Amino acid sequence: METRKQTHVAILTSPGMGHIIPSLELGKSLVSQHDLKVTLFIPTTSKSPQSSTLHNNQDGLNVINLPPVDITHLVAGETSLVVRITTIVRESLASLRSIIETSQQTPTVLIIDLFSTDALDIADEFKMSKYMFSTSNMSAYAFLAYLPKIKRVKNNNDLVSRLTELVHVPGCKPIRVGLLADPNTGSYGCMLRHVTRFKELSGVLLNTFEDLEQETYRALIDDEIAELIPTPSVYPVGPIIKPTVGPSKNQAIHCLSWLDNQPNGSVLFVSFGSGGSLSSEQVTELAFGLELSQQRFIWVVRNPIDFVLPSSYYLDAGNTKEIDPSDFFPDGFLARTQQVGLVLPNWAPQVEILSHASVGCFLSHCGWNSTLESILNGVPMIPWPLFADQHLNATLLSDDIKVAARTQIPPGKEVIRREEIKRMIRLVMEEGDEEGQNLRRRAKELKTSALRAISIGGSSYNSLCQLVEKWNTESDSVQL
Ligand SMILES: O=c1ccn([C@@H]2O[C@H](COP(=O)(O)OP(=O)(O)O[C@H]3O[C@H](CO)[C@@H](O)[C@H](O)[C@H]3O)[C@@H](O)[C@H]2O)c(=O)[nH]1
Known about the structure:
Layout: E1 8-12, H1 17-32, E2 37-42, E3 61-65, H2 81-102, E4 109-112, H3 120-125, E5 129-134, H4 138-146, H5 156-162, E6 166-167, E7 175-176, H6 177-180, H7 186-195, E8 203-206, H8 214-221, H9 223-226, E9 233-236, H10 249-260, E10 267-271, H11 280-293, E11 296-301, H12 311-315, H13 333-337, E12 341-345, H14 350-354, E13 359-364, H15 368-376, E14 381-383, H16 390-400, H17 418-429, H18 434-454, H19 459-479
Parallel strand pairs: 1-2, 1-4, 2-3, 4-5, 5-8, 8-9, 10-11, 10-13, 11-12, 13-14
Antiparallel strand pairs: 6-7
Helix pairs in contact: 2-7, 11-17, 17-18
Bound molecules: uridine-5'-diphosphate-glucose.
């Protein structure tokens, strides 16, 4: 009997670990659980980190780093990250097209991410079905899908005032416009261009699960509301998170063995995602806040945004030193906290840390991957949003899902003071605090419900099966 050819799915992610990591995990799961053939395309620049760290050792999954593109002349002076990322993707499309054109088995499905909608033209050319993998939460997606419906503004003054305007996306909690798409930056127009192409998609895979965002999910599948939010079919398929990621072995062993020696639930993990940095003043306050809280901690530290490297750094020929926290920490901080704290420069094996029994709380910038990783490991959070969807995620976690402390982070660029940081940490970490107990209980419940969603027969598992079946049927008919 002739065996059917595996369905070939292409995934195009925009560069940035927050998108690459979940896209890779989606690819792995389509290969290992659903027997598809997957090619993941990653646009790069000469400055891109080597994604060989992304553990690709699976038959059926091909990870292709597209040739590096140079966008410096195209975005000179442009500060918007969204515009930069969009440009990198757009400049990589010629390479993507030629790889697809010459591939032995043309993919029948193309899954893009939010910043890759320009690739939909290639999908049209090669008659591939068009899907998007949204790496953020469902409310963010609903908001973006609704964006074209929001009345356009006339001038710059209007733009500024709209930052704080509440948008009532049907069926969802009101969202401040500026939280997701700052109309004062180039990102707004660029985002609008991406979201107006959502209507071309056959479906959107969301890295979340039904039980986590029930209200929004109901709105998105409600026929009446669908008239108002121009969105294709949605498929919550998450949490899709990575099991491990690229730290050097020594670093992993060191921090994990340090955790082995700490009591259960006693360590606060502090990290701001793949690119988040604080100001020097804020780093100082956080250091003192940690010290005042008298809790154990692991802190993944980056050079502060406004930090000027010491002159010795430039004088040192061939300097490979990337970061030395003692250059910017308060005097004596490392010595005073060495019995209780571990400072890791730049990067840590986050998932391993979060899954360790000694970790009791995650102080996080609330990137959606970090959020899902915390949820899947039953760890309550202290939200410290910095940019993009993170404020929205933080509100969701504190007010709706109730797995994160309610923080009093001042609006704008104000600094969070050490006393407030100490208060938040103690609230979650100390045994006796009722609010902390509730958060820990809720974190356990969510872990159970997240695990249920991705297990065989669970809502996310079924959603993905439904899609795969559709893709297989379509692919079979192409091959006939
Ligand atoms: O030291 C580190 C730091 C990060 N990570 C991993 O890197 C990923 C980071 O992703 P995320 O938590 O989502 O943060 P960002 O990198 O900031 O992600 C971008 O993309 C996300 C998904 O769209 C958005 O929610 C964020 O706001 C946006 O900044 C996670 O898997 C982490 O486990 C590590 O393994 N070690």
